Amino acid sequence: MLLVDFTNAFADPDRFGGGNVTEAIANTVPLLRAAREARLPIAFTRVVYAEDGSDAGVFTRKAPGLLALTDDSEGSQIVAALAPEPGEHVIRKTQPSAFFGTDLAAWLLGRGVDTLLVAGATTSGCVRASVVDAMSYNLRTIVVRDCVGDRALGPHEANLFDMEQKYADLAGVDEAIAAVLGRAAGAATPAAGP
């Protein structure tokens, strides 16, 4: 399971949040609980830049506010409701994709992962970039539609539609929870579709 950028800055409507991000975080709480119960590998991402901005690139030219997300900044911390537990992988990233310039692919593939549930923010940005790269690594990718959010619903819905057409399957949170718990009991992953 991959939780993309559910950090304080993306939960804050006055920063990068808004839209349905708060609802997506709330919907992810029971999904994360189920994933932990099923002992799935769980990875989190946080956007984090060096204090001096030396690792910034073109992405921060388009979104300069991201430079405030340093390792110790409150905004870069994962929201308390989804706080990682010991043994869960927390990835620092400076680009939209959770895979670009990180060890995520090796970490997942080294654990035999072939199917990836994705939750996070924002649907049109870092979630989509991560989903495209997950598919590029030949991972069956399932976006949990109730557990992804964006600042505006138009881009959110358009990107869900587009991801389902080309890169991923979509599942509702209840369906994903049932599949995760079923997997723990020996059942299959969620079927594609609504």
Description:
- The protein is 38% helix and 17% strand.
- By secondary structure, the chain is of the alpha/beta class.
- The chain has one domain (2-184): Isochorismatase-like (Rossmann fold, 3-Layer(aba) Sandwich), CATH 3.40.50.850.
Question: What's this entry about, in short?
Answer:
The chain is of the alpha/beta class. It has helices at residues 8-11, 21-37, 58-62, 104-110, 123-136, 153-166, 173-184; strands at 2-4, 43-47, 89-93, 115-121, 140-149, 169-171. It is built from 7 helices and 6 strands.
> Helix count, per DSSP?
7
Instruction: Report how far apart the termini are.
Output: 19 Å
The profile of the biggest β sheet is: 6 strands, parallel
- Which CATH architecture is right? 3-Layer(aba) Sandwich
Q: Give the strand order, joined by hyphens, for the main sheet.
A: 3-2-1-4-5-6
Strand content: 15-25%
Relative helix content: 25-40%
Low-confidence spans: none
- What order do the helices and strands follow? EHHEHEHEHEHEH
Taking all Cα atoms into account, the compactness measure Rg is: 15 Å
CATH topology: Rossmann fold
| Integer average pLDDT | 94
Structure keywords:
globular; 194 residues; 17% strand; Rossmann fold; alpha/beta; 6 strands; six-stranded parallel β-sheet; 38% helix
